[in-house]
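Lecture 7, part B: from sequences to assemblies.

Below are the input chains for today's worked example.
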Amino acid sequence: MTIYDIAREAGVSIATVSRVLNGGAVSDATRRKVQEILERCDYQPSQVAQGLATRQSKNVAIMTVDIRDVHHAAIAYVIERTMAAAGYGSILCNLGGEPSSAGEYLRALSAQQVDGVFFIGSIFVTPVCQDYITRYIPDTPVMFTNAVLPVKNAYGVLADEAQGIYDAVMRLYRAGRRQIAIVTDSETSSEHNKLEGYLRATSDCDIEPMCFHTERSMQGGQIITNRILHDYPGVDAIQYTEDITAAGGVHTLQQLGVAIPDRVAVIGCNNSIYCTVCYPQLSSVDNRLHETGRRAAEQMIRLLNREGGVERTICLSCGLILRDTTPAM
Amino acid sequence: MTIYDIAREAGVSIATVSRVLNGGAVSDATRRKVQEILERCDYQPSQVAQGLATRQSKNVAIMTVDIRDVHHAAIAYVIERTMAAAGYGSILCNLGGEPSSAGEYLRALSAQQVDGVFFIGSIFVTPVCQDYITRYIPDTPVMFTNAVLPVKNAYGVLADEAQGIYDAVMRLYRAGRRQIAIVTDSETSSEHNKLEGYLRATSDCDIEPMCFHTERSMQGGQIITNRILHDYPGVDAIQYTEDITAAGGVHTLQQLGVAIPDRVAVIGCNNSIYCTVCYPQLSSVDNRLHETGRRAAEQMIRLLNREGGVERTICLSCGLILRDTTPAM
DNA sequence: CTGAAAGCGCTTACAG
DNA sequence: CTGAAAGCGCTTACAG
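Predicted structure of the full complex, as structure tokens:
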């Protein structure tokens, strides 16, 4: 069933069929006649042919390190749903560890004529990635979440994680905690922001900063927490920059028989499902993944529609969700 | 940069360029000359134009209820990576609650000329879904994971979950447990299989089956576990058909001060990351999601290459991963 | 081995 | 308002 079949059936030219399909100028009588046939045949125009003619594929790409990461999945989910509602398909890309594989994907995506590209996670903020963008998709709108890159076709939606961590640490301080440690677990710009929020809070409270680093995992959290407790027995709160690492910390505290939150309070970050699976349930900084994804997709749609009014970067403020690992006030 | 530019540059026809691109018959000298230009220009053929000419989009679709579900994400991840290695892009579709929305997606996907469709999860095994497949993509290979549908273009890869649950329950029995309950949490064919495995095991052991049903969630697990303990204080083991529900059960047991596994043993299903985030760490039936996804993608690639030797359904056996919620023997 | 030409299914100036 | 025609960038019989 092609546009030719419809045209023949309606006794008009294919140009006219195309016009009623795309809302062009057509007489009411003709429009009705064609539309009737369109519906009767359940006609669906070939997106591939449309793509060749218009140079728009009606597809966007979602670049992520690994969709199995629950945070990335949360953002990818909203993006896909929002884009689908606007008529766009979402091509999923799992880049794996190194951002360099972004090059191969981007090259393939340019051959696919994707209309827009989302980058989920701040791991992509690297010179090499910037290079790939200017080489392969210099004119395709690019939307970052939790990051920005100084490229003319790039935009970003990010959560103010520095403020989120700042607020969390201040809350611990107001609850009487004075030896508040932080555990970071990667080297992204997002992590730097979190650390900055922590340092600002400890400075404002005039308490000694205690910074630790480990691997982002249950095990990483367990190892570093063991060491913190051993080396600094006076610690009374630990802020982690990721829930899964915090969950590892909670396990270690449980195993050592350290009362949570009475002896040591714990706060994670991302407010993921891990918070409730963990026992006791974990308090966490809410960096508003769902909202981030939604706004990113909405901005992208505006860009694709050339609507204007698209801000270069949008900054969302973080919340704080208190559960069972923080003391009441 | 089109095939015309390359042809002009090389002083040959576009047909010849197309042939060297697709491995057609070309003289060695010509091939070398063209190839040199191809590389120098970093030429990349338009997949859209190729798609129109060959009727192949080099894209597959991954249909899932919700990519935020860690099990679906695990399978989608492998599929995407395997298909990408074979030169196919993966279009992600989150259908949401009702399988009926599969219709809209499938209609759009047929306009996109996707080369194959994956369905993740047994929720799609419904007559309405079968209808959509025969209506919109009657000739497109369809690969189910953890399900099968009696359609000529449909194939499946599934884990033998009946056997998995059977083995788990037998393990509990051999550890001396005699009041072993099961908690199911949905109505899919997958759940029926699990229940069947449980009933077979209790029958073989000649113990009384105790079947309960709840919502698939932490909270669902907490509620039902409270009730089981209240109504059947003698219960000494609970098998859940999903880790997250089991994690809810573990929380309740912890809160009630019931010793795990000494008083009550717990086994989940899916061997997901929730098993290690949960405290104590959860034993679980391993239904081999990664392997399922890998095999599904490999089968699909064979189908797309018309290689033959593709089995209608592949059945993987389940394992049992023991952690801290089951007694030693 | 190589090229001219038709075709894939649309869109969009350009005339009328 | 409507149609004939060119064009989007490829592939593939068909001749030679």
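Note for the exam: The first strand of chain A starts at residue 59 and ends at 64. Keep this in mind when comparing with the next example.
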